[in-house]
Write a structure and sequence with these properties.
Length: 357
């Protein structure tokens, strides 16, 4: 019997990758979103405002899923509002489905801010030793990831479903208009540097430049989500979700530069965050020139690049990478090469005329 999936946040980086993975594996896939971006071909689109209990209830009234996947968040002005809004979205979907979730599986995608603290208190507390391990637990700060988890845990007690939590690092994936998209941002930055003759300067900290790090491909996250929804060994547990390789940005930066046919600038004496430098150079106007010259399909740079989020990840003052032993011992053995997946993303952006070929 065909399994049925409901994905909250289907138009995002992880949501769209999960939809494609499940479709390939024969699932019947429904996706909840605001309807601003097309869902992957083959999915059933359900339009709702996830912050509205009544809107969600109306959208899901005809569906009884075997698995519910959450990969959704909305950035707010502060962490108190992040908790209220993002915790509320998880609660609204769970309550709208209610008893129909009995016997199903609910998977929640959060991230490494579980260990680092939220943007309001990013890395300001005592950061756990690397590599991060699931048993290190929560930081003693308010965090909307914890609020989302708590809503999922409460629903499991109330409605009798199994659950899993998935914590990727920075995600490599394809999505237009996404607020957290480093791979796409770096592709746009490199393209701007090449077209306008700007130096391709690493915008982050010395700790990130020199330290060991890792990343998560959206397709690998999708593989782990499907595994968790179908494997008894993954029930009611939390898992780090990274590619499995590690690297240093001082190496990867030159690799990315070589891909785009440009020189990597020397590491700067002072940090040069992208948000400030792109504002100083008037990136929207610069990108419009690139788009016009190469007949690109998206002239609005802010639909492709998330300068602030890339700054947050690359500007961290500590080494950040994770341990995958827990899910490997439970049977999840997928591995991705980060450089290959970055280059595959760049190739796709070229094919879709989002960056110059």
């Amino acid at each position: 019997m065909q399994k049925k999936a409901l994905i909250a946040g289907i138009s995002g980086v992880v949501g769209s990758a999960t939809a494609k993975r499940l479709l390939e594996q024969g699932w019947d896939v429904y996706g909840l979103s605001r309807g601003r971006t097309p869902v992957p071909e083959g999915c059933h689109s359900l339009t709702a405002d996830l912050t509205s209990e009544s809107s969600v209830k109306e959208a899901v009234k005809e569906i009884t899923p075997d698995a519910l996947f959450f990969s959704v968040w909305a950035r707010q002005a502060n962490e108190e509002e992040n908790i209220r809004v993002n915790g509320g979205m998880v609660r609204n979907v769970i309550e709208a489905l209610g008893e129909k979730l009995n016997g199903s599986h609910v998977a929640l995608v959060t991230g490494l801010k579980h260990y680092l603290g939220p943007f309001d208190a990013y890395g300001k507390g005592e950061v756990p030793l690397t590599p991060f391990r699931e048993e290190q637990g929560r930081q003693p700060v308010a965090n909307f990831y914890y609020a989302q988890e708590d809503e999922m845990f409460a629903g499991a007690q109330k409605y009798g479903y199994s659950w899993s939590v998935h914590r990727p690092h920075t995600i490599i994936g394809y999505a237009i208009g996404n607020a957290m998209n480093m791979g796409q941002t770096l592709a746009v930055y490199a393209s701007l540097c090449k077209f306008h003759g700007l130096p391709f300067v690493f915008p982050g900290s010395a700790a990130q430049w020199n330290g060991v790090t890792d990343m998560s491909s959206a397709s690998l996250v999708a593989e782990q989500l499907e595994w968790a929804a179908t494997s008894p060994a993954a029930k009611n547990d939390d898992f780090n979700t990274v590619n499995g390789d590690v690297f240093r940005w001082k190496w990867m930066w030159s690799e990315i530069a070589a891909y785009f046919g440009i020189e990597a600038a020397p590491f700067p004496e002072t940090e040069q965050p992208l948000e400030a430098s792109m504002a100083r150079h008037n990136a929207p106007a610069l990108w419009q020139a690139v788009a016009q010259a190469h007949q690109l399909s998206e002239p609005d740079v802010n639909r492709l690049a998330s300068w602030w989020h890339t700054d947050a990840d690359l500007g961290r003052p500590m080494e950040v990478f994770t341990d995958m032993s827990k899910s490997r011992k439970a049977g999840f053995l997928a591995y991705h090469c980060t450089r290959d997946d970055l280059f595959a993303l760049f190739d796709q952006l070229k094919r879709d005329k989002l960056i110059p070929a």
